[in-house]
Write a structure and sequence with these properties.
Radius of gyration: 18 Å
CATH class: Mainly Beta
Oligomer: single chain
Number of strands: 18
CATH architecture: Sandwich
Number of domains: 1
Structural class: alpha+beta
CATH topology: Jelly Rolls
Largest sheet: 7 strands, antiparallel
Shape: globular
């Protein structure tokens, strides 16, 4: 059992830095849209809102709650947000600094050695990301190399690499071990959009709302295998930046 399910830094980024990241993210989304590139976030293995207009939002419902409501998994979509990727050196530096501190202070001491490209995310009204894990930790979940003309698995319809594959050699054989989320919006500028963790049925407070994550500029770091969600936005817009730190799969002692 984990001693700390997450570690946080309240208002770690000042307003100027937050606003700068938001500006870069919105400009990137706008540029992609002008090129005809869809910025609606995808979820591996799940149905999406854009191509399945008859689906209903899963919101923060768990699979058990869906069953209780007589709703089938293939009737829902699990994410509604727009994204862009910010491959910018000074953003990596901010993330690396805080992850390094959190990894030691929380007592995880996970072996991580590379970061994916930071993802800027916009949640507009009704936007959400239902319960999910950012990654599993065993050898079955490692990133596999995609080699054009050699890998048999076909590309997705939109031209993206198939789920679980990468062309980045630094990702080969690794899994997501630590996740980072940074709130870039003033907490009073939106309603809903809460970061929640599922701490397990053994916990007295299984579905835990991470209230510190609402402060603008706050950074939350947590193991990527922990279930979490962003509840639906009921008013305003929430901007965030997320990232994942990679490393070799955990070694389980028997």
């Amino acid at each position: 059992m984990l001693k700390n399910y997450y570690y946080y830094f309240v208002s770690a980024l000042d307003e100027e830095t937050c606003n700068k990241i938001v500006k870069l993210g919105l400009e990137s989304i706008d540029n992609l849209n002008k090129q005809g590139i869809n910025t609606l976030a995808e979820v591996a293995g799940d149905l999406d809102k854009k191509n399945n207009p008859n689906l209903i939002p899963k919101n923060e419902l768990t699979n058990n709650q869906l069953i209780e409501k007589n709703i089938k998994i293939d009737q829902v979509y699990v994410r509604d947000s727009n994204i862009a990727w910010l491959d910018i050196a000074w953003i990596y530096e901010i993330i690396e600094k805080h992850v390094s501190i959190a990894n030691e202070a929380a007592g995880w001491n996970y072996d991580v050695d590379f970061a994916e490209v930071p993802q800027f995310t916009t949640y507009n009204k009704s936007g959400f990301y239902s319960w999910h894990k950012d990654g599993d930790t065993d050898w079955n979940s490692v990133y596999k190399p995609y080699i054009k003309g050699y890998t048999n698995t076909p590309l997705k319809k939109n031209g993206n690499l198939p789920t679980g594959y990468t062309s980045n050699k630094n990702f080969y054989g690794k899994v997501r071990k630590l996740s980072v989320t940074i709130n870039l919006s003033d907490e009073n500028s939106y309603e809903g959009g809460n970061l929640m963790f599922d701490l397990g049925s053994h916990s007295k407070n299984q579905f835990h709302e991470c209230t510190v994550a609402r402060k603008k500029g706050s950074i939350v770091v947590f193991p990527s295998y922990i279930d979490h969600c962003i509840t639906p936005i009921t008013k305003g817009t929430r901007f965030s930046l997320v990232n994942w730190l990679l490393g070799r799969p955990f070694k389980w002692l028997i």
